[in-house]
Amino acid sequence: MITAFLLRAFDGKALVFMGVLAAFAIAIPAGNLLFPPDHALHVPVYVVSLLGKYMCYALLALSVDLVWGYCGILSLGHGAFFALGGYAMGMYLMRQIGTRGVYGNPDLPDFMVFLNWKELPWYWTGFDVFPFAALMVLVVPGLLAFVFGWFAFRSRVTGVYLSIITQAMTYALLLAFFRNDMGFGGNNGLTDFKDILGYSVQADGTRAALFFASVAAVAIGFVIARAVTRSKLGKVLIAVRDAESRTRFLGYRVEHYKLFVWVLSAMMAGVAGALYVPQVGIINPGEFAPANSIELVIWVAVGGRGTLVGAVLGAVLVNFAKTWFTGVFPEFWLFALGGLFVAVTLFLPRGIVGMIGQHWSALRQRRVSARAEAGSDEDPREGEIANAMNHQAAE
Amino acid sequence: MLEQASNSVLYLDGVSVSFDGFKALNSLSLVLKPGEMRAIIGPNGAGKTTMMDVITGKTRPDEGEIYFDGAVDLTRLDEADIAELGIGRKFQKPTVFESQTVLDNLELALKTPRGPFATLFHRSSAQERARIDTLLEQIRLTGRRDELAANLSHGQKQWLEIGMLLAQDPKLMLVDEPAAGMTDAETAETATMLKEINKTRSVVVVEHDMTFVRDLGVKVTVLHEGSVLAEGALDHVSADPRVVEVYLGR
Amino acid sequence: MLQIRSFVFALLIAVSALAGLSAPVLAQNQSDLRSLINELAKGRYDDTERQIEAIAATGEEAAVPALQALGSNDLMARKSDGAVFIVKKKSGGYQLIDPLTGDVAGEAGRRDMERIKINNRLRRAIQSALGELTLMSKNPDRRRQAAEQVFKARDTEAIETIDAALDAETDPGIATLLREARAAAVLNSDASEADKIAAVGVIKARGDQEARAILAATADSSANSGQTALHDAATRAQSHVEQILAAWNAAQNVWYGLSLGSVLLLAAIGLAITFGVMGVINMAHGEMVMIGAYTTFMVQEVIRNSAPWLFDASLAIALPLAFLIAGAVGVALERFVIRFLYGRPLETLLATWGISLILQQAVRTIFGANNREVGTPSWMSGLTEVGGLTITYNRLAIIIFSLVVFGVLITVLKSTRFGLYTRAVTQNRRMASSMGIRTPWVDAMTFGLGSGIAGIAGVALSQIDNVSPNLGQSYIIDSFMVVVFGGVGNLWGTLVGAMTLGVVNKFLEPYAGAVLAKILLLVFIILFIQKRPRGLFALKGRAVEA
C-alpha cells in the first residue's frame, strides 16, 4: 500500500526534478573531495556547507508549501518547528562533546556547569543516543504541531487569525528559549559541536556527507509531499483551501485533514532544522524569531505556492540572493527583501513556477482549441476564456 | 409527538435561533415524511437559509428539537457528522471546487470513507468510476469531465453541485434555490431532475421562482419571520390571505 | 546602649536638618548664632546648659549639627582663639568643620583643641533643644520630616520631647505622625502592657510597611516576655496591616497594569480600526509607531538647536506632526499596495510585512541603528505618592492620553459622517458600496486614521521606551494579541482587551517573572482564541459569515 502510494509521486516532471537533485547531490561533494584545492573544478568546503544550508531551507520551504500552498493555512510559525528539530539535534551534538568542553564535565554541557547545575535535566536523558535524538527530531515538532493544531483547527480558527496565533506561538517559544533555566543554553543556545556519529563535524568528508543527506532529505520530502498532494487526500486539501465549509458539508472532517498535513509539515520542518544545525554549527533562540518564519513564507511565494518544485526553487533563489546581498551590499538586503514581499504579492501571485506553468498550459490550451476548431464548431476562444477563469479561480 | 418523529425523515419542533436579538427562527416546526419532496417559500429574511443551517449543523439552535430519520438528534452533531448521516446540502450560490476538474469534484463527493488515512491511500475502483460515469450522464456533463469546474457555465455549476449531492447518496437533500440564475429551459430541466431524484430520496427545496415550484407540484410550506405561516398545496397557500399579504402587502 | 541610641536619634535629626537647609540663613542670624555656639565652650556645666537653651530659643535649624556634635563629644574649642568647631579625628590631629556651614575650616593638632565636656543633664538639655529646633520648628515641612525621622529612630529617650512637641503641634497631620512616633518609641520602651497595647492601636492605624515591621517586632518581643494580651493585640494588628499592605500592593499592580494596558491600547487601537474595517492585517503598523517616535525625536532636535525654550511644548508640537506623517505614509501604503490586494488578506499580510522591513531599514539608514535620545518635558517627570501607591507623571500622562485618544476616536466613529461610513463598511461592505459610499475612499481614510493614531502612539511611547528602528517590532505582536483578544470591529473590546492584558500581565509578573508572565499570557490568548475565535466582543450573526 505504501509503495503504491509513494509510486504515485513519480511522473515525468518529478523524475526530471529528482534527476537534477541526484546530479547535484553527487557533483558537489565530488567536486570537494575528488579535486585538489587548486583545481578549477574544486568546490571549497564553505560552499558545500552553504549549499547544504540551502537544501535545509528548501525542505523547510516544502513543508510550508504543503500547508499554505495546498491547504491554505498560512503559518507564520514554521520557524518554531524548524528550531525544535534543530534543538533536538543540537542536544545530541552537545552530548557528543563529552569531556572536551571547557569545563571537561563528562555529562553536563558547559552552560549547565556554568549555571552551577549538578545533574542533567530529565528532558536531556537519551539525547546521547543518536536514534533517540533522531526520533525526537520528528516527535517534538510533531507533538507541538499536534497539540496546537488540535485546538486551533477544532475551534475553526482560520485565515489571518490562525496566522497571528502561529506567530504568537513561535514568539512565546522565542521568549522561553531565551531563559537560562529552560536548560537549552539560553541566549547563546547550543554550539561548539565536535562530533556527529563519531565523525568530526568540521571534517570535509562529514560536511560532504551532511550535504548529501540534506539533498536526500529534500528528495524524500519532495516524494512524500508529491504523493500526498496527488492522492485523494491532496484533493481534499485543495477543496479545503478553496471552499472549506463546502468540504465540511460533503462530510469531511476538515480539522482532521488540516491536522494531518500540519503535523506532517511540522515534522518535515523539524528534519530540516536537524540537518541545518550540524552544518552551521549552532542553534540559538534567534531561530524562533517571528521574522524568520515570515521570511520563509516569501521563499515559497517567490517560487510558486502550490507547486512543490517552486518551493524548492524559491528557497534556493532567495537565499542565494541573501548571501550575495549580505556580502556585497549588506545594508540593502532588507530593502531588497521587503521589495520582494511587495513585488511578489502584487505582480507574481503564483510565483515563478506557477507563472511558467500558466503560460505553458495557455499555450497547450490554444493548440487544443485550434484542433477542436478544425474538428467541431466549438468556440475557439473558449480555451483562453477558460484559462483566464482558471487564473481567477486559483486566486 | 415522538411517534410523529419516528415516522418522519426530518422533524423540527419549536426551533428558535437569534442573532444579536434578531429572531431568525421563531419556534419553527416542520415534519417531512420519508420519500416526500417539500418546497419552502417565503419572502427575504423569512429564515429559509437559517433553517438549512440548523438542519446541517452550521448553526446551533437556541432551543427546539431536530431529529433525522426519527431517532438521530441533529442538534448535537456537526456538519461532517450530519453529512455522513445522509443529509446533503446544495447552497444558494453554487459552490463547487473551482480549481479541480468535474471528475475530481464528483470523486470527492462520492460516498467513500471520509477519514484522512482512508483518502491518503485511496485508489479509485472500477465501481467508483462507473458510478461517476452514471452521475455525469445524469447531470448532463459527460463531455466536460476533465474540464476545471471554474470553466463551467453558471447552470452547469448548479448541476455539478446537484451531481455531487447525488454522489453523496443522501437520504435527504436540502436544495437552496436551484433555479436561481438559470434560463427557462435549464429551470424546467432542473425540475425534472429533482423529481427524478425524489424517486429515491426525500428532498427539501427552497425556491423563490413560483413557476418552478408549480412545476414540482408538491406540498408547499410558507415561512414568515422565522415560523410557518401556511402549509399545503401551492394553490391552497396562494389563496391564503395572510400569504398574499406577506408577499404583496406593506 | 542608650547613649548610642540617642546618638543615632540626634544624628538622624541632624541629617534631616541639613536636608532642610535650602533657604539661605541670614548673615545677621549667623553671626549671632556663631557667638552663641562659641559661648558653649565657656564656663561650667550650668553655663553651657543656659547656652544650649539660648540656642534652642533662636529656633535656628543651622545650630542642629553643632548641638548634635556636642552630644557626641565632637564639638571642640580652639585654644588659640576660643572658636568652636565640629571635629573629625585625623592621624595626628583633627579636621575642623565649621559648625554652621559644614565647610572644612582647616586642621589642628591634638593639643590645639579642647573638648567641650558634657554630663547627663547636659545630654538631656541637648535632646530637648534638638527637639525644639526640629520637632518644634516653625516650618511645618521641617517638623513633618523631623517627626518621620523620630518615628524611624524609635528612641525611648525622645518620648518626652515628642510629648512636648505634641502639646505645641497644631497641624493634625503632623500630630498624627508624632503620635505614631511616640507609639513606636513606647513599644520599644519598658512601658506598661496597657500603654503598649494602646500604642499598638496607633501603629496599626498607620498601616504601612514600617508599621508592619514594628508590630512584628512587638509580637516577637511580647511573646518572649510573656505579655499575652500585648502579643495578641500585636499579632492581630500585624495581620490587619498585612491585609492593608496586600491591598495596596494589588492596587499598585493594577496601576502598573493600567499603565501597560494604556501603552497596548495606544499601539493596538489603530490596528483595530484597519483590521475591523478592512479585514486586513497591517504588519507595518508597528513601523507607523516608530515613525511617530522618530518624529518626536526630530521635533526635539530642531527645538534644542533653535528654540530651547519651547522644549516643554515639544510633545504637543510632535503630536499633530506625527499624526500627519504616519497618516500620510498609511494612505500611501493603502493607495499603492493594499488596495490591489483587496480580498486576499494573507497576501496583504505578507506585502505589509515587506513594507515594514523597508521602513525599518530606511530609518536605520537615515538615523543609524542605535537608540535615539528623546527627552521628557519637565511637567512629565517626577512622581507622587497616593497612600501606598507610587505614581510617576509620565505614566499617568500616557494613561490619560490613551483614554483621550480612545474617547476622541469613539466620538469620531459615532458621530461624524466619516465614522458612519466607516461603520457601514465594517458591517457590510457590498451594501455600503451600493448605497453610494465610496468604499475605496473610506478604506484610504481609515488606513490613514489608523496609521496616524499609531503615529501619535509613537509620540507617547518615545517617553517610556527606546527610540530605535526596532521599536515597532516590539509592539506588533502585543497589539495583535490585544485586537484578537478584544474582538474585531469593536473598539470597546480593544479597550477592555488592552487593559485586561496589561493588568493580568502585571499580576503574573511578581510570581512568574516578566518573561514567563509574557509567555503565559501568549499561551492564554492562544487558548482563548480557540475557545472564542472571534474575541471577547465579537460581531455576531450572518454579517460575520459574509
Brief write-up:
The complex is a heterotrimer of chains A (395), B (250) and C (546). By secondary structure, chain A is mainly α.
Can you describe this structure?
By secondary structure, chain A is an all-alpha fold. Chain A has helices spanning 2-7, 12-33, 45-71, 78-97, 110-114, 130-154, 159-178, 204-230, 232-242, 244-249, 254-280, 290-303, 308-328, 333-347, 351-375, 382-394, and strands at 190-191, 195-196, 199-200, 282-283. Chain A has one domain. Helices cover 72% and strands 2% of the residues of chain A. Chain A has a two-stranded antiparallel sheet with strand order 1-4. The radius of gyration of chain A is 23 Å and the shape is globular. The longest helix of chain B is centred in the C-terminal third of the chain and has 15 residues, at 184-198. The radius of gyration of chain B is 18 Å and the shape is globular. By secondary structure, chain B is of the alpha/beta class. Chain B is 39% helix and 24% strand. In chain B, strand 4 (63-68) and strand 5 form a beta hairpin. The model of chain B has no long low-confidence stretch (mean pLDDT 87). Chain B has 11 helices and 10 strands. Chain B has helices at 2-6, 48-56, 79-85, 102-109, 116-120, 126-138, 154-167, 184-198, 210-216, 234-239, 241-248, and strands spanning 10-19, 22-32, 37-41, 63-68, 72-73, 87-90, 172-176, 202-206, 219-224, 227-232. With 546 residues, chain C is α+β, with helices and mostly antiparallel strands. Chain C has 3 domains: 27-121, no CATH class; 135-226; 249-545, ABC transporter involved in vitamin B12 uptake, BtuC (Orthogonal Bundle), CATH 1.10.3470. Chain C is built from 22 helices and 7 strands. Chain C has helices spanning 2-19, 27-39, 45-58, 64-71, 120-134, 140-153, 159-168, 172-188, 193-206, 209-225, 228-278, 285-306, 314-336, 345-367, 393-415, 417-427, 429-434, 439-461, 471-486, 491-512, 514-531, 542-545, and strands spanning 75-78, 84-90, 93-97, 104-109, 113-115, 383-386, 389-392. The longest helix of chain C has 51 residues, at 228-278. The radius of gyration of chain C is 33 Å and the shape is elongated. The model of chain C is unreliable at 17-27 and 541-546 (pLDDT under 50). The chains are: A mainly alpha (395), B alpha/beta (250), C alpha+beta (546). Chains in contact: A-B, A-C, B-C. The interface between A and C is large, with 43 and 44 residues.
